[in-house]
Amino acid sequence: MFVTYLRRELAGRRKQTAIVAIGMALAIALVIIVNAVSSGVQLAQATVLGSVYGVGTDITVNLTPTAPAEGDAAGGPQKFDFGAADGTTADGTTSVSQARLSAGWGTFTFDQAALGTVSAVDNVSAAAATLSLNNTTFNGALPGSQTQGTPPAGGATPPDGGPDGAGGSSFNVDSFSVLGLDPADEAVGPLSAVTLTDGRSLTSTDAGANVTVLDSSYATTASLATGDTVSIAGTDFTVVGLVTAATADADTAANVYIPLDVAQTLSGLTGQISTVYVQAASSTDIAQVQADIEKALPAATVDTQADLASSVSGSLASASDLVKNLGLWLSLIVLAAAAFLIAILSTISGVTRRTREFGTLKAIGWSNGKIVRQVADESLVQGPLGGAAGIAIGLLGILVINLVAPTLTAGATSVAAAGPGAGFGAGGPGGAGPGFGGAAQAAATSDIVLSAPVTASVILLAVGLAVLGGLLAGVIGGWRASRLRPAEALRSIA
Amino acid sequence: MYELSNVTKTYEQGKRTVTALSDVTLSIPDGQMVAIQGPTGGGKSTLLQMLGALDRPTEGTIELGEANLSKLGDGKLGRIRAREISFVFQSFNLIPTLSAQDNVETALALLGVRSTLRKERAAAALASVGLGDRLGHLPTELSGRQRQRVAIARALVKEPTVLLADEPTGNLDEETRDEIMDLLEGLWQAQGLTLIVVTHDTAVARRARRRLLIKKGVLTEGA
């Protein structure tokens, strides 16, 4: 009887059933789509971060910058000092050259013992140290000593010598970023974010060896290939491989990768590192690992991927903000207003319209409990009906998004250096040249195709919301029906 | 048997108190057919609701057999309505989405009658009012006369001891009115139940063996 009544009511009051179900369906579809897009944006964000910080990296540890003490020259501008006997002179022109490998501006180094400290923290599954450096080479040509100084008496002899033969000078500054890393650590850190395109990567046997792996973009610009030799701090390194970023356009963390111990020796930063990359045992351990590292290394800045996410810029960041700020609010508002509210109001309205019906049933002897159950059951069926439709609409929406595959651009700030060939000319007539090229902040940019993944949890969430919406409407509608006194219900229609 | 002693019923309408029934004392033996007449707003329907255990008096007592209807809780009143009291309304009050047979079955749904027997009894009740061939029809597919017959079948299917009819012919033409009253009177005689009819219609009231008049909440025996 009750099932027949339920079935006939739902079929007989199609309009109300449709309104409740459609409201519920649209809201649930929106929740599914927003959740899927949100997951897609987070995946895209993780891809960008992975390309910069390493795929498996959960946490990075750096030294917190502090103001230099008075008289402390560390961190000041680089200088190239040449003695009177430096350089080689030929044809009235003295050529000088000097290379320097040092921590770039904005990079702070700390004791390598921190790596051991971090590795000892509970739930750290892997940790790798790197030393971020800049190799700057100064090349110059200037007039020989005999052509400089006070002109001969009479002053009529014009200056000569120098690269232009008229007493002028020319200087060239070449700079690129160098990352020293432990060749044995491939699971975490910058090398985990790159793809080998030629040759081989660094291996544990490369420790102490003058071998290097180049970023393929840098190699192209510098006309270098596997097997060539590249000079770093005046030392020749053999190029053993080329790597490229995991994503299409993102830069890797450096132009040149060399073994950590070699980098420390050449830069004079023995036992020093600039960053520790940490992988937690599981995502649920990240907060604990971060807290423990902060406690063990009070002077360090400990960033998680969530912190790093703030460095992602571009339309991906906009999309992320949109999803976080607008999308979730929108879905909540629509869910509350368009679904739950419509379902509840519609159910209450239906109860009011059915005052005579419920009054009659009570007059016949139906208990409050039976009538409440009747109303609640109707709503409970309408909810999942809407839920099923909502899941279908939501999946359709996700399919459309995945077919359209909108592209988002993203940037993540990383320390990089200008490419080769930057330099300046000065001195003699006509000697003005282009600006100085040095270490700088560069942005790794990526085009990420947004995909909206469908997960079982999203479907379960939708089903849960449908049941909850139906239950809520049913309980409130049933409560309303139970409040009807049979005499009043019948009197209202007398 | 009904026993009403000094029954008063008042309602609050804003700041005003309306007296619908005033000190009504009444006794109705089992099996009697009673007509209650009176002007609109005189208290007829209120009295019927008190007799039907749909409401409780503000003062006084109402007894149906051993049960004191003025003291029982909602649950017990509901059970008494389910087993002993039936209603026939002026507007038929059928469930619009249910067929004639389903509507009649609603009166048996709470009595623990098995589905097969319930359907058989509903079909038999409809046949007894001349609607044996309309079992699957919705109320909207039936005429006013047929709808009231369905309502009567619903009222009688559970074999109550009391049948309360509130203007049962109010929405019907004269010919149909007589037909419905013939039906009700025949069933009353056949089943020996107590039949109480509230009506404006003197022609309907004249059929009753006892006539009561209620005006401004005060009940008097009719001529």
Automatic annotation (TrEMBL), chain A:
According to the record, the segments passing through the membrane are 17-37, 326-348, 385-405, 454-476
Q: Which residues form the ABC3 transporter permease C-terminal domain?
A: 332-484
Recorded hits in Pfam families, A to Z, give: FtsX, MacB_PCD
Q: Where in the cell is it found?
A: Cell membrane
Which parts of this chain are annotated as the region Disordered? 139-169
- Bilayer topology: Multi-pass membrane protein
Matching entries from InterPro entries are given as: ABC3_permease_C, MacB_PCD, Macrolide_Exporter_MacB
Question: Low complexity: which segments have biased composition?
Answer: 149-159
Family statement:
Belongs to the ABC-4 integral membrane protein family.
- According to UniProt, the name of this protein is FtsX-like permease family protein
Q: Which organism is it from?
A: Cryobacterium shii
UniProtKB/TrEMBL annotation, chain B:
User: What UniProt keywords apply to this chain's record, in alphabetical order?
Assistant: ATP-binding, Nucleotide-binding, Transport
SMART domains (alphabetical): AAA
| One function term, GO molecular function aspect | ATP hydrolysis activity
Q: Locate the ABC transporter domain: which residues?
A: 2-223
Q: Which InterPro entries match?
A: AAA+_ATPase, ABC_transporter-like_ATP-bd, ABC_transpr_LolD-like, MacB-like_ATP-bd, P-loop_NTPase
What's in the GO CC field? membrane protein complex; plasma membrane
- The yes or no answer to whether the keyword Transferase is present is no
Q: Does the keyword Metal-binding apply?
A: no
PANTHER family in alphabetical order: ABC TRANSPORTER ABCH.1, IMPORT ATP-BINDING PROTEIN
Which protein are we looking at?
A: ABC transporter ATP-binding protein
Gene source species: Cryobacterium shii
